[in-house]
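Students often ask why we bother encoding 3D structure as a string. The short answer is that it lets us treat folding as translation between two languages. Here is a chain of 282 residues written in the first language.
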Amino acid sequence: MTYHQIIQLKNGASCCLRSGTAADGQAALDNFILTHAETDNLLTYPEENTLTATQEGEYLQAKTESPNEVEILAIVDGKAKLIHDDYCDGLGDCLPTCPTGAITFVEREAAAYDEQAVMENKQRKMRKEGMTLPCGCPGSQSRNIQRQEAPAVETPQAQQTSRLSQWPVQIKLVPVNAPYFDGARLLIAADCTAYAYAAFHERFIKGHITLVGCPKLDSVDYSEKLTEIIRENDIKSVTVVRMEVPCCGGLELAAKKALQQSGKFIPWQVVTVTVDGRLVEE
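And here it is in the second language, the structure alphabet:
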């Protein structure tokens, strides 16, 4: 179902409320990860999401093409945004009016949340699509990675040299005003990336100051310290290397937030490592 309307937010910005499309998949997924990390009162945590950006886009496109369903995105300055509660004055002007009467809003006492029913429903849907629902976080799901044996090499190989140029490397431990940050090309990497990608030292650590962390295991907001590091030092560039699993999205979001809050315009990029060791540059 297609919907389109322009409204003005309380801060004066123009906001376009419209149906989502396949091209909005990544933006919608980013917002899902952000909102579900902010509270314990939603159905799932970010790391429990099993959808990819492509699947999210397909979901939005299906809603738009449906005759009686709608999924509305808020677009501000050309980007999908979160419209916080304090932007809403209760007018209800953002709600669609269905021309066929297929959508109505009913106020009633809601049934109690039934976790078992939710999981059974997910299992039914995924079995229908030929998928299985893993227990817990997708990033913790056990899997075997099949690899071909490397051909035997007759000549001895030169010993690999570490490219690490500073210590410590953990985001939680590194001093904000360490001298090696002056003029640094900053690498912000998820813990697992160095194990998954064989040439990590040569491809990423070489020529960079390295910071590592795991948003799933560290119960801290990385963005606060990263903001200080970027704001207080002459950082030349930022490279974020994350795993493809959903819980690694927290590291990417923290780095983006830090760049925004620092008030600086610094070249940056995100590189994703798949669990079988391939690179996906964004």
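Translate back mentally: Confidence is low (pLDDT under 50) at residues 83-91. Keep this in mind for the problem set.
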